[in-house]
Amino acid sequence: MNQRNSIPYLKRFEQIMPLFHKSMAHMNECCVEEMNLTPHQFIVLKIIANTDNCIMSDLSNNLGVTMGNMTTMLDRLIKEGFAARKQEPDDRRVVGVRLTNKGKDIVAKATKKRQNILLNMLKKLSNKDIETMLKLIEKIVTNQEPANE
Asked: DSSP class of residue 55?
């Protein structure tokens, strides 16, 4: 696609993406608000749940935040009883993180609610449309190249 022909697509993309982001954020807010979690806390809990032997640097890197910010977020989750730190026996500098049973329960409930909301959103699309959308999103996120400025 040459640059001149891409202008209409760029304009549409820039109009659609904030709306798409807003609907995704709304979905995340709806699934966690009654559980007294913020969307960011839910994301942290999901990362912990989906990462074998999760360590603080995994969380920090996945979220793109400093270790200090990650420590603050994790402290809140620990205070609420959703997560716990675990010292790594081989390297005391490495701090592992695990979900508590309460954390596992809240992740399961919030995930189920989120999936129901997402299914409701996707029911407007055919299976073919959903498959196409997923393939395109995967293509975008896996083929990122540095921008030429």
From this structure: B
